[in-house]
Write a structure and sequence with these properties.
The protein has 14 helices and no strands. With about 400 residues, it is mainly α. Helix 3 packs parallel to helix 5 and helix 9 runs antiparallel to helix 14.
């Protein structure tokens, strides 16, 4: 594959993957404005984030079988259309419950793009290259937390929060056009794959029972829940507890994303010397130490704004090393059912993200300690799952299995 075609594929696949994170991050600075405009509380507005996580996790289970049955592009177009229509609805919403529901639909649409992108990585690139490709996608995805809350902060301050969803709708349209023009047909429709509930559930079960999948997918999902905890808790942490304004919050969020971007690119360099399995274990060990220090410091109230930013920066950097490797290792055993495997992987990650974001909305009010407890617990649990689960993993006999 020549470098020009490679770059084009990375940019389009990265844009598909980034649509969901951009939809999460861009409206975060507007929580207070949305609460005031819809006559509700910031905690109720945070439920729209939880509904988004629920929608994007449950929706992935729908798209996986569709991508395997109808090929990659038709379900992708369906998802992006739903996303654009739901974004349009958010522009005109006047009720918090309707807003929460539309965010759910927006998520169901965007997850079609996410699952399709992950599946097409498995279609287009050999197994040994997938961690590097996922790391490249992280570079594109990493721009979303850099740009989205910063742009959102200025847009909300100058034009109002409704304009954020107009921008998201236009992004969806642009990505739909780019995918239609620039992405190849990577796998034809397979009419032998049934869309009846029993065969679908059996297919998911077959994916789940693969030791390499359930070990690395669950490890990655539990660890990655720390990112969702941070995303859900950061508006309360920075704007309510530390009393920064919308624009400052946007810049803090952008700075934090540098850790995720930088470490994901460092991962590509380290993979020249170390295996993905080694990278996952090392990242979790380092993150466990950081989480322990963070937890002790939060408990004794030792952290000011800048020290808190520093601890979160280090914590998120470990996720940048972890995520590309757990994703690549999870999908390595699959080809024909790569769509279902990608969907299940995403559903695990985002389902746990939904649960942790709900916990943040309930417990994080006037102290960072509950947020740090959730993050530290996830890290330690992920390390335990990895240590126990990898004992049952057998080396793949060839590049692909199914």
């Amino acid at each position: 594959m020549d470098s020009k075609k490679y770059l084009k594929l990375i940019l389009i696949l990265g844009s598909l993957t980034a649509l969901g994170p951009f939809s999460i991050d861009m409206y975060l600075p507007g929580f207070s404005a949305i609460a005031a405009d819809l006559n509700t509380t910031v905690n109720n507005v945070s439920l729209s984030l939880s509904s988004y996580f629920i929608g994007i996790s449950s929706g992935q289970l729908l798209y996986g079988p569709l991508l395997d049955r109808f090929g990659r592009k038709k379900p992708l177009y369906l998802g992006l259309t739903i996303y654009c229509l739901a974004s349009l609805g958010c522009i005109f919403v006047t009720d918090i419950n309707a807003f929460i529901g539309l965010r759910f639909l927006q998520a169901v649409g965007s997850c079609g793009a996410t699952v399709a992108a992950m599946t097409m990585v498995r279609d287009l690139f050999p197994v040994k290259d997938t961690p590097k490709v996922f790391a490249m996608l992280m570079l594109v995805v990493g721009l979303s937390p850099m740009l989205a809350p910063t742009i959102g902060g200025y847009v909300i301050a100058g034009l109002g929060w409704h304009v954020v969803f107009l921008i998201l709708m236009l992004m969806g349209v642009a990505i739909l056009i780019a995918a239609a023009i620039g992405l190849p047909k990577t796998r034809p429709a397979d009419p032998t794959i049934s869309l009846k509930p029993k065969p679908i559930l059996r297919g998911f079960y077959e994916v789940l029972r693969e030791p390499q999948f359930h070990t690395y997918a669950v490890t990655g999902a539990v660890a990655f829940s720390g990112l969702f905890t941070y995303v859900a808790g950061s508006p309360i942490l920075f704007m309510d507890i530390f009393s920064v304004d919308e624009k400052t919050y946007g810049w803090i969020f952008a700075f934090m994303s540098l850790s995720f971007i930088g470490s994901s690119q460092l991962n590509s360099v380290l993979l020249r010397k170390y295996k993905s399995e080694q990278m996952v274990f090392a990242a979790l060990c380092i993150q466990s130490v950081i989480a322990a220090i963070f937890l002790i410091s939060a408990y004794f109230n030792w952290l000011d704004l800048y020290q808190t930013i520093g601890m979160l920066f280090l914590y998120l950097a470990c996720l940048g090393l972890l995520n590309p490797n757990t994703a690549g290792l999870s999908l390595a055993p699959f080809t024909r059912t790569a769509g279902s495997a990608s969907a299940l992987l995403g559903a695990l990650q985002l389902g746990l993200g939904a649960l942790t974001s709900i916990a943040v909305g309930i417990f994080v009010k006037d102290s960072m300690l509950p947020m740090v407890i959730i993050m530290a617990s996830g890290t330690v649990l992920a390390l335990i799952i990895l240590i126990v689960g990898r004992r049952n993993i057998k080396p793949l006999k060839a590049e692909i299995q199914d």
